[in-house]
Design a protein that fits this description.
This protein is mainly alpha-helical. The protein has 9 helices and 5 strands. α6 packs across α7 and α7 crosses α9. The two termini are 41 Å apart. This is Rhomboid family intramembrane serine protease.
Length: 261
């Protein structure tokens, strides 16, 4: 439906989004290592680290030699394995644009816990809907869905540059594309429950993100921020100086593009 490109939502509590950057780096590293393996080894990695509902619910057993981590850990490890470059890229750009502000609202450690819990919720929801499936679930979409839900609850009116239908760049209030995206996940789950895309994992992540942001955000961080922030790319300010200039009376006043107040 759309690709997020940029928001101008500055960080308020942290200087650098270390957890977001580390998660992106880890996902890329795992993909690179997997892509360098032979096809057979890559499939073994997918099976060993992916979340398989039939194994999780006791309807099947993983073949000897394929288990890389204990089965309970696959509720997390699946979120760091991707099926291809575009699968990885689509998830990471969402994390890049929206993850920093959610991390800012929670702090580093709580954001990491939040991310992992959303991933686990996505796997659980997928598993409950497809309990006998032996296909491994991989990808960070469940965790990313939680990040999207948290962002729209924190900053629904912040303007975000999005690429609509892969062609048209538009600056929109965050709630417009994000609520449409969230609605799409529920709609697709309802009409195509057996799709190759795990809409159930997306929905599980969304529900977890919406609930966890209520308890994991910093004290004093409001929900549904009313401030409208316009991306710098659409501001009509040609001056290199600050947007606010001091008046002769010591008060501040807006600095207009043509240099007059």
């Amino acid at each position: 439906m759309f690709i997020p490109l940029h928001d101008a939502n500055t960080l308020k509590h942290i200087k650098v989004q270390w957890v977001t950057l580390s998660l992106i780096a880890l996902n890329i590293a795992v993909w690179l290592l997997t892509s360098l393996e032979s096809e057979q080894a890559a499939q073994a990695t997918t099976v060993g680290l992916g979340y398989i509902p039939a194994i999780a619910f006791g309807d099947a057993v993983l073949a000897p030699g394929l288990e890389i981590v204990p089965e309970p850990l696959t509720y997390l490890t699946y979120a760091f394995v991707h099926a291809g470059f575009w699968h990885l890229a689509s998830n990471m750009i969402f994390l890049w644009v929206f993850g920093d502000n959610v991390e800012d609202a929670m702090g580093h450690l709580r954001f990491l816990i939040f991310y992992l819990l959303c991933a686990a919720a996505g796997a659980l929801c997928h598993g409950l809907l497809t309990m006998t499936s032996q296909a491994p679930l991989v990808g960070a979409s469940g965790a990313i869905s939680g990040v999207v839900a948290a962002y729209v609850m924190l900053h629904p009116r912040v303007r975000v540059w999005v690429l609509v239908f892969f062609r048209v760049p538009l600056p929109l209030p965050a709630f417009i594309p994000l609520l449409l995206w969230i609605g799409q996940q529920f709609f697709m789950l309802a009409i195509t429950p057996d799709s190759d895309v795990s809409w159930g994992a997306h929905v599980g992540g969304i529900l977890a993100g919406a609930l966890l942001i209520l308890v994991l955000r910093r004290p004093g961080v409001p929900l549904f921020d009313r401030q409208i922030v316009t991306p710098r790319a659409v501001r009509n300010d040609r001056s290199a100086g600050p947007a606010i200039a001091a008046g002769t009376d010591g008060q501040t006043a807006p600095r207009f593009p043509w240099g007059r107040r």
